[in-house]
UniProtKB/TrEMBL annotation:
One of its GO terms (biological process) is proteolysis. Residues 166-337 form the Peptidase M16 C-terminal domain. Residues 13-159 form the Peptidase M16 N-terminal domain. Transmembrane segments: none annotated. It comes from Acuticoccus mangrovi. Pfam families: Peptidase_M16 (PF00675), Peptidase_M16_C (PF05193). This is Insulinase family protein. Keywords: Hydrolase, Metalloprotease, Protease. GO terms for molecular function: metal ion binding; metalloendopeptidase activity. InterPro entries: Metalloenz_LuxS/M16, MPP/UQCRC_Complex, Pept_M16_N, Pept_M16_Zn_BS, Peptidase_M16_C. Belongs to the peptidase M16 family.
């Protein structure tokens, strides 16, 4: 059973009890990410995530890691477009220890200037590592091209210049503005008792200031073209369109549309591009859903001499699916999506993450039966309608590797929208 309680401070506590396990996953989701950054703050949300583990008023960085590892636990964090998550995996008996550490790093981080400088170097190395991987460069560029000149489209890691400008004082200001009770959700899954968890969270996070989530500008899908044609051994190409927001009535249909097109080895794109023609070594279709916007996209990785033909096949398959996608194809996509939901329920960490996301996005736990029923209600006609609708939006195109600069003309001719300028 998943249960949720909202404290008087505005902080949300959600738990998913699993009686058959001896462990637990515990995390704190803060509704702030790269999208929350103001002008001049690019990369600061991710920088702050790194700094959370670099010491507090009462714990050094070393004591944090030693405390959790002394009981065989793990602790980590991640920054995304809209949230930053701090989470631990421990034995159930060590929940109070993990909660105390998470509360400490999220209420009294030290932001010591010498630690800021050390971590700056680590993040610059992380940026360099991402730059060395063509696929990472392509996926980092996708939101930048799809949401031009908006915070929601910024690269999560920041740039070398923006990371170089982050200061301890800037981190403190960002922390004070965004790390408030109303922006926090504590989620736990595994061997956990909800009432006890609520009491312990209320005590541990009593110092968190009350406050609502700062209002953000609405995301506006623009489409656009971004080409990075450096000489690499491979080519990465992504074609995107306007998708659906997480709470949109068609969000599930958009996910199923992506899975039907490129969600597995039996999907249209994998069969047409790799199995039948040998044009790519990897391809997929996916749908990213944010709070108020989304992106539907197709990705392929191939060699320079195969790009042109592979792109033509993608357009052919998208256009064909609008009219001919079958109930059998949708049934496979449904089965994949349902299996993903049900299999993930065997993992404490997955159930913790699901509970947190549901609390943030929908304001309540969503039973698995309800999610399965939503999937079952989507018809092949719904998926074809979604494919027809999204492909009429302004295209987004990202190219990384030694290929001609991409043109949206072929996409526009097929699906009927004006191309946006190259970034």
């Amino acid at each position: 059973m998943t249960r949720m309680t909202r404290l008087d401070s505005g902080l949300t506590v959600v738990s998913d009890e699993m009686e058959h396990v001896d462990s637990a996953a515990l995390g704190v989701w803060v509704e702030t990410g790269v999208r929350s950054e103001e002008e001049g703050e690019h990369g600061i949300a991710h920088f702050l995530e790194h700094m959370a583990f670099k010491g507090t008023a009462t714990r050094s960085a070393r004591s944090i890691s030693e405390a959790i590892e002394s009981v065989g636990g793990e602790i980590n964090a991640a920054t995304s477009v809209e949230t930053t998550a701090y989470h631990a995996r421990i034995l159930a008996e060590d929940m109070p220890l993990a909660l105390g550490i998470l509360a400490d790093i999220l209420t009294e981080p030290a932001f010591a200037p010498e630690e800021v400088e050390r971590e700056r170097n680590v993040i610059l190395q992380e940026i360099g590592s991402a730059e060395d991987v063509p696929e990472d460069r392509a996926f980092d560029a996708l939101p930048e091209a799809a949401f031009r000149d908006q915070a929601v489209g910024r690269r999560i890691l920041g740039t070398r210049d923006s990371v170089g400008a982050v200061s301890a004082e800037g981190l403190r200001r960002f922390f004070a503005r965004h790390y408030t009770a109303g922006a926090m959700t504590v989620a736990a899954a595994g061997k956990v008792e909800h009432e006890r968890l609520v009491e312990e969270v209320a005590a541990a996070f009593a110092r968190v200031p009350a406050g609502a989530i700062p209002e953000l500008a609405n995301a506006r899908y623009t489409g656009g073209i971004l080409a990075d044609t450096d000489d690499t051994a491979e080519c990465q190409w992504i074609l995107g369109f306007e998708g659906r927001a997480a709470r949109h009535d068609d969000a599930i249909a958009a996910h199923l549309a992506a899975m039907s097109m490129g969600g597995g080895l039996s999907s249209r794109l994998f069969q047409a591009l790799r199995e039948e023609r040998g044009l790519v070594y990897d391809t997929s279709a996916f749908h990213w859903a944010f709070a108020d916007a989304g992106v539907f996209a197709v990705h392929l990785a191939t060699s320079p001499d195969a790009v042109e033909e592979a792109v033509a096949v993608v357009l052919d398959e998208l256009e064909d699916a609008i009219g001919t996608l079958t109930e059998e194809e949708l049934a496979r996509a449904r089965a994949q999506m349902k299996a993903g939901i049900l299999m993930s329920r065997e993992s404490c960490s997955a159930r913790m993450s699901q509970a947190a996301r549901q609390a943030i996005v929908f304001g309540r736990p969503v039973p698995k039966e309800e999610r399965i029923a939503e999937i079952e209600r989507v018809s092949a006609d719904d998926v074809k309608r979604i494919l027809a609708d999204v492909t009429r939006s302004t295209p987004t195109m990202v190219a990384v590797g030694p290929m001609d600069a991409p043109s949206a003309d072929a996409v526009v001719r097929r699906f009927g929208r004006t191309a946006e300028p190259t970034l």
